[in-house]
Amino acid sequence: MRDGHPRVSIGLPVYNGEVYLSGALDTLLGQTFTDLELIISDNASTDRTPEICHTYAARDHRVRYIRHEVNRGVPWNHNFALGQATGEYFRWASHDDLCAPDFVARCVKELDADPGLVLCHTRTVVLDGEGAVLSHNGGSPWIGSPLVHERFRDLVGLGHRYWQPLLTFGVMRREAAVVAGGLGSHIGGDRTFLARLALQGRFLEVDEDLFFYREHDGQASSPSRGRAARNAWWDPSKSGRIVLPYFRLGLEYARVVRNAPISGRERRRCYVVLLRWPFHYWKHLAVDLKHAGEDVAARARMTLRPGGPRPV
């Protein structure tokens, strides 16, 4: 520990995670790198999550469990965990993912060796709900580029492949994460966070399968839950509102470039990257408009039906 603080802080935001939570906690507390703290931020769970967390907190002094009485959504809970961190390095963990015992140690080693890195991750193995391997992800060369616009191009989804949101589970310099402002309050706020972080410095991917990301129907972000449910999961205060997530994402990327502390030349190159973005994601933008139109039509039918409220 340095100055009484652990070198690594791990923030685990959770809501109703009883099914997989114990497994995730076991892999985090079983890291070969032991100079860490684990901050569990519970977004008002209604299942056995509190009981499980209290058990681990009583067993290991490195665990700090904080329960909130109101569910304020994904970005708020993630950012609360970041705000509680005291370590030199920080990472977010999910209640349903796993990591190999050497995950933190390998990432810290790389960050210690290269001050120009702001985040280190490893290759990712995607699992299903039962633990079977679905795929192996990784191998993007551009996140480590010394050129800002090349990193930005990859982080907005125009590079090797669009697996970048998983990088939010890497080990990063805590001060850089704070400067990046944490997750944005909009849907896709993890993506704009990574873009802001990448404009501060390089990322590195360790060529080892040390992170295990789980895909299952119980995920709040699962497509099986439907668009409205996913929107409410991200930010309960926006439940029922008409949203255009990809339009908002494009706008936020433009704000990231405008506010970034980068040279004028690199800023112009990043704007050129953004000119390509709508053409690459035009199908997603079209879906935004389609769903918004359906929502408007449904509300109009509800308003105009016999006995229903009349428009003012």
What would you note in describing this structure?
This protein has 2 domains: 8-214, Spore Coat Polysaccharide Biosynthesis Protein SpsA, Chain A, CATH 3.90.550; 223-304, no CATH class. 41% of the residues lie in helices and 18% in strands. The chain has 11 helices and 9 strands. Strands 1, 2, 3, 4, 5, 6, 7, 8 and 9 form a 9-stranded mixed beta sheet that branches. Helix 5 runs parallel beside helix 10. It is globular. The model has no long low-confidence stretch (mean pLDDT 90).
Radius of gyration: 20 Å
Unreliable sequence segments: none
CATH architecture of the largest domain: Alpha-Beta Complex
Give the number of domains.
2
State the total count of DSSP E strands.
Answer: 9
- Helicity level, as a percent range? 40-55%
